[in-house]
């Protein structure tokens, strides 16, 4: 049955794919514009290896000379030692190739007349003696810019050994983390999270929870892809967040182990290791975290204008959590053209929370009419795994010509339950209840990708199919006061399954001409959804097709400056928690539930950016505008019973314009400075109660980081960040301010160990989190007071020999 369905889908996709590919090929075959003769651009390429295999990531300094004037440019090879860059062919050049642990090599290149000069294979010889001391002349920059992404090099951040991944994300350009640890990418909370370029079950439920339990030390680089090419799934309005972890080494082994403690009440531990012997390689990351949060205080005030009543709530809450993870990759290279790898990921976590709440309901004259106390005790558990098998084949006649086949299976579960008791204090009916919810997600994916170089151009195409099955089983029971038996409430209980099949085809063409670069592509996705609400006997079936274009054009102004512009569309499919009609009755005056009638939406994204690198300073300025019709928006209404109900619906329009500035510089070799800022204007419109509603406003996010090296073994650093009030359809959230100070000391021979101390928010012990909802029928303010000052200590030990 599955094979038959797959054949039908492929018939529907092959023809559009062929059409898209043909269009791209016609563009590539078109006669290019003739450049002036004095430009004389040419391409130099080659491959850097050692005596055993490709060396990977060698540094190349290009020195050019003409009319007594010298020019300098810097580039690096790919993971497999290949390099290719454009120069002015009527000049002479010197190539200086270097790699830590290898002897540098200089190659003189005279002026040439051919379009491409292939240097073939260049061998770097390993150094025969161990390096006794290395002086860092140019520290690795924290932030790097590419055509379609911004990269934050976590391994160059001195605070990486003491911070969590979530705390590190606060420093990354275009990412914001609010007071409630909600993560947004480019102002959006809809985005994809990838691990080493692949989706992971680790982030199936709540990315912020996973990041808060992940030490930043296991991450090598964080990539923010705001304009994803067509080879990426169309899902995710905000873009793609790609987490690059430590994976491979050259022949030999290396790794690290770390342990940390924080006050109040935190403990973390973990490590990574990687090894390569001949044709085999293996890498693994593992660790865990345990945390108990101090007691936080919460309050809520809501005034109901129609019923002239007022609700006041105050209370305290506590929570604790534990989480563990394991991920890695095993690889086999039978030869330079064939590579086979197996990647895996496992996660598990659990937690508990408790709260005590006092509630009072007053009339318009301020007289107390009802009062009760709400006691709640909850538990939660999550687990997930994913396993993937990948095969890559490169062709002997052209190593850039690649064929990749990948299969992945993943599964995740989430269980949560609550026992709550409502104790009547005045004119209120008490009750003892229990609720339980099980969510499960299973997915299988098969993907085929092909890359075909055509002279200087590159054609990419591929097919992908994925099957996802989501299920939820939840119940709500209340204790009968006469029989003392818990009775099931069928109106608040359900069992449903949600199946989704996505079949896609894409093609993309990259054109290069002198200083110009054009990337054009399109992705066709066919989606089929089947929902079965077993308890109510309701079925819902949808099938729709989306063609998602992608266009990116850039021009190199000087040797280190680039101007680019792009347009793309992003597709948002509602997540399971938005579809699940499970009713959360933990707070009887504020309930929430999902909407199974939600459908996907499309966002249009326009952007323009300028990036430059001058000496030791990099800078990037970008302007982005996006809008979404029939957007999924969260709505809160107050009913005749004075109870607030929160759900989501496709009845609005979202618009956002943002200007971002990111820079990084090194001063006197010892001081590294970086600054990120984003000024945005958001506008949300919808229909509430049959009446139009609009909310708009400006937002600002800004952060700065400084790191200074004291001698050879000491380093100090500090960070400061600010996020202004966030804009909601019905209100706003409070602003936040955060800061961190850290001190690192390298220990042992060759600095194999590092001890780190840091303080989060040293000048502020508590943070006030708040949100405000304003409506013609009610006004509501929620506040919480939580402890944010945290002292951290960590010890990291590196081992291995390469």
Structure, briefly:
With 802 residues, the chain is mostly beta strands. 5% of the residues lie in helices and 66% in strands.
Low-confidence stretches: 1-6, 8-39, 129-138
Number of helices: 4
Distance between the termini: 50 Å
Mean pLDDT: 82
What is the gyration radius calculated from CA atoms?
28 Å
Biggest β-sheet strands, sense, barrel: 22 strands, antiparallel, barrel
Inertia-based shape: globular
Percentage of residues assigned to helices: under 10%
- For this structure, the quaternary state is single chain
| Proportion of residues in extended strands | over 45%
- What is the structural class? mainly beta
Strand count: 43
Structural commentary:
There is one protein chain. The chain is mostly beta strands. The protein contains 4 helices and 43 strands. The strands form 5 sheets. It has a 22-stranded antiparallel β-barrel. A 6-stranded mixed β-sheet has the order 8-9-14-15-12-13, with no helix packed on it. A 4-stranded antiparallel β-sheet has the order 3-2-5-6, with no helix packed on it. The longest helix has 28 residues, at 2-29.
Protein topology:
Layout: H1 2-29, E1 41-49, E2 59-66, E3 69-76, E4 82-88, E5 92-98, E6 105-109, E7 116-123, E8 143-145, E9 150-153, H2 165-169, E10 175-177, E11 183-185, E12 192-195, E13 198-199, H3 207-212, E14 219-225, E15 240-245, E16 252-263, E17 266-277, E18 280-304, E19 309-335, E20 338-363, E21 368-395, E22 398-426, E23 431-454, E24 457-479, E25 486-488, E26 494-513, E27 516-533, E28 538-558, E29 561-572, H4 576-579, E30 584-587, E31 590-592, E32 601-614, E33 617-638, E34 644-667, E35 671-688, E36 691-710, E37 714-723, E38 731-733, E39 736-747, E40 753-760, E41 766-774, E42 778-787, E43 790-801
Parallel strand pairs: 1-7, 12-15, 31-34
Antiparallel strand pairs: 1-4, 2-3, 2-5, 5-6, 8-9, 9-14, 10-11, 12-13, 14-15, 16-17, 16-43, 17-18, 18-19, 18-42, 19-20, 20-21, 21-22, 22-23, 23-24, 24-25, 24-26, 26-27, 27-28, 28-29, 29-32, 30-31, 32-33, 33-34, 34-35, 35-36, 36-37, 37-39, 38-41, 39-40, 40-43, 41-42
């Amino acid at each position: 049955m599955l094979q038959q369905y797959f054949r039908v889908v492929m018939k529907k996709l092959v023809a559009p794919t062929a059409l898209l590919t043909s269009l791209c090929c016609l563009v590539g075959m078109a006669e290019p514009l003739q450049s002036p003769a004095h430009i004389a651009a040419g391409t130099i390429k080659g491959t850097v290896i050692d005596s055993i295999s490709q060396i990977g990531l060698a540094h190349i300094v290009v020195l050019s000379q003409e009319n007594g004037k010298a020019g300098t440019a810097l580039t690096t090879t790919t993971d497999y030692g290949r390099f290719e860059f454009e120069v002015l062919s009527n000049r002479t050049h010197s190539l200086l190739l270097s790699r830590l642990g290898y002897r540098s090599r200089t190659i003189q290149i005279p002026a040439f007349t051919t379009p491409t000069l292939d240097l073939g294979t260049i061998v770097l010889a390993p150094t025969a003696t161990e390096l006794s001391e290395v002086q860092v002349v140019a520290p690795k920059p924290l932030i790097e810019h590419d055509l379609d992404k911004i990269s934050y090099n976590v391994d160059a951040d001195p605070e990486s050994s003491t911070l969590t991944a979530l705390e590190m994300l606060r420093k990354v350009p275009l990412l914001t983390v609010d007071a409630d640890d909600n993560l947004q990418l480019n102002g959006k909370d809809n985005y994809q999270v990838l691990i080493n370029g692949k989706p992971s079950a680790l982030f199936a439920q709540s990315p912020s929870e996973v990041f808060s339990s992940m030490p930043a030390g296991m991450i090598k680089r964080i990539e923010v892809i705001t304009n994803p090419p067509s080879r990426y799934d169309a899902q995710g309005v905000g873009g793609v967040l790609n987490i690059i972890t430590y994976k491979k080494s050259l022949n030999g082994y290396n790794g690290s182990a770390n342990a940390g403690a924080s006050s109040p009440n935190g403990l973390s531990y973990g490590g990574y290791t990687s090894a390569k012997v001949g044709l085999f390689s293996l890498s693994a990351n593992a660790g865990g975290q345990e945390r108990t949060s101090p007691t936080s205080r919460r309050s809520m005030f809501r005034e109901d204008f129609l019923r002239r009543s007022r609700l006041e709530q105050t209370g305290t809450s506590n929570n604790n959590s534990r989480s563990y993870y394991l991920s890695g990759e095993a690889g086999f290279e039978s030869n330079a053209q064939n590579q086979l790898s197996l990647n895996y990921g496992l996660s598990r976590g659990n937690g508990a929370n408790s709260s005590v709440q006092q509630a009072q309901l007053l009339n318009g004259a301020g007289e107390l009419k009802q009062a009760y106390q709400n006691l709640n005790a909850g538990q939660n558990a999550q687990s997930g795994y994913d396993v993937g098998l990948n095969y890559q084949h490169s062709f002997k006649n052209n190593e850039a010509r690649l064929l990749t086949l990948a299969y992945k299976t993943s599964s995740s579960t989430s269980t949560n339950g609550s026992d709550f008791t409502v104790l009547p204090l005045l004119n209120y009916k008490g009750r003892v209840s229990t609720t339980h919810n099980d969510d499960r997600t299973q997915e299988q994916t098969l993907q085929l990708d092909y890359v075909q170089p055509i002279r200087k151009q590159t054609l990419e195409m591929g097919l992908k199919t994925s099957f996802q099955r989501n299920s939820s089983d939840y119940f709500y029971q209340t204790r009968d006061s006469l029989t003392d038996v818990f009775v099931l409430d069928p109106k608040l209980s359900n069992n449903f399954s949600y199946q989704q099949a996505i079949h896609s085809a894409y093609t993309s063409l990259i054109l290069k001409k002198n200083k110009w670069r054009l990337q054009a592509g399109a992705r066709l996705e066919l989606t089929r959804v089947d929902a079965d609400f077993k308890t109510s006997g309701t079925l819902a079936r949808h099938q729709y097709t989306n063609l998602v274009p992608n266009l990116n054009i850039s021009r190199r102004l000087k040797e280190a400056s680039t101007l680019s512009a792009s347009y793309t569309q992003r597709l948002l499919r509602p997540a399971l928690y938005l579809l699940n009609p499970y009713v959360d009755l933990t707070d009887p005056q504020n309930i929430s539930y999902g909407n199974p009638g939600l459908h996907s939406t499309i966002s249009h994204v326009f952007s323009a950016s300028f990036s430059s690198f001058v000496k030791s300073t990099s800078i990037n300025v970008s302007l982005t505008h996006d809008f979404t019709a029939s957007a999924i928006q969260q709505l809160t209404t107050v009913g005749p019973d004075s109870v607030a109900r929160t759900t989501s619906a496709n009845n609005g329009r979202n618009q956002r314009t943002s200007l971002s500035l990111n820079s990084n510089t090194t001063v006197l070799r010892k001081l590294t400075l970086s600054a990120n800022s984003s000024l945005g204007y958001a506008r949300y419109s919808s229909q509430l109660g049959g009446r139009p509603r609009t909310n708009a406003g400006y937002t600002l996010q800004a952060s700065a980081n400084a790191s200074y090296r004291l001698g050879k073994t000491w380093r100090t650093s500090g960070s400061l960040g600010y996020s202004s009030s966030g804009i909601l359809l019905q209100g706003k959230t409070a602003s936040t301010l955060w800061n961190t100070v850290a001190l690192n000391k390298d220990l042992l021979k060759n600095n194999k160990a590092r001890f780190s101390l840091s303080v989060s928010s040293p000048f502020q012990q508590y943070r006030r989190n708040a949100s405000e909802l304003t409506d013609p029928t009610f006004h509501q303010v929620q506040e919480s007071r939580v402890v944010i000052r945290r002292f951290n200590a960590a010890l990291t030990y590196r081992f291995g020999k390469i």
